[in-house]
Amino acid sequence: QNSRQKSRREELGQYCQGNRVPFSSTIIVVLTILSIQQQTDAFSTHRSISGRVAGGTWSGIPRTLSPNQFNTPRSRLQESEGGESKLTDWVVENLGEVTSESSTRAGDNDWLPPGGLIIANKFRVLPSTATTENDNDGELLYPIRLLLGQNGWGTGVHPTTTLCLKWLTLDHVVQGGERILDYGCGSGILGIAGLNLGASSVVGVDVEAEALITSERNMELNEFADRFEGLHTREVVPYCLRRPGADICLANILIGQLVRPSMISAIVTNLAPGALLCLSGIRPHEVGSLKTVYGDFFDWIDDDYEEMAAVDTVGSLESYGFDVGDWARLVGRLKSTGGIDIETMSEGAVS
Predict the structure, then answer these.
(1) Cys-Cys crosslink for 184: which of 27, 82, 101, 253, Cβ 3.0 to 4.6 Å?
(2) What is the pTM of this model?
(3) Distances (CA, A) of 223 to 109, 209, 220, 263
(4) CB neighbour list of residue 262: distance below 8 Å, 6 or more residues apart
(5) Cα–Cα separations (whole angstroms), residue 322 to 25, 41, 254, 284, 310
(6) Could you tell me if 336 and 297 are in contact, meaning their C-beta atoms sit under 8 angstroms apart?
(7) Average pLDDT per run of 10 along the chain, which is 351 residues long?
């Protein structure tokens, strides 16, 4: 392993020197490639997690891949025996305490009334134990049932979650068969909503291993287990999803992460031509910065831009106990001439 890495470093050094690549870019390129190689080696083996999660009370989700489902690199696409989770060993081994069910609380104390929340006149978000009928004065609502506990943020009481759910219901967004990339999936609520509306599959990404387990459980609860794949943020690298990539990307994440060159490249390179990107988790005054860093790759859809205040979000004040303020949703479509300039991205990472 060491000799292989040394040989690879020498080859890359000669290439960069011969092509006059700046020294700072050379360092980033070398470290990035070696990091990807180490991740691929680390994730090459799968083991069953049945009986290891929640004291063995959850049997896991069958590993079933449909032809139109996009996924992780080939080294992590091995078929597993029934009863295994799709999460890699690395994720499972870094678990903290997994979700313990509650009747009213989720994630960072998100609140959900026993009768659920109606959002965008399309969804009723319900605790898993709820028996409420799924209608709104005779109008059919899509149910989103969630296992409530300490892990897996997102019930719809935060303005950013509501903004994303409302956007998914617009006529031009989910028309049937779309592949969704849910960055910062938390409870899995946005992916479940998209599948209810007709999307074909969802890849959920989160920095918290516990959230990925929660998303898997909630997908199983909503009968979408075979159409979901969970990945840790460290597993997502440029071009890692099966081509042509995601048709819709939802990124409900704070701006500090959204503007990182590594996240920009991971998002842009894993989208299909003409894909839609919905950015939330942002304040209205931060929109300009996002337009700047993503502007080379996306044409912004002004009609899809929306702001929402906590005081106008059902359940927000009751959940958090204070006004969380105003938030925004920014939407763009991937340009047909999109692409990643590796040297530019490397220089950005250095600066």
Answers:
(1) 253
(2) 0.72
(3) 25, 21, 5, 30
(4) 349
(5) 45, 46, 19, 19, 9
(6) no
(7) 48 50 44 42 28 24 30 32 54 53 56 81 87 67 83 82 97 97 95 98 92 91 95 91 93 95 94 97 97 96 97 82 92 78 52 46
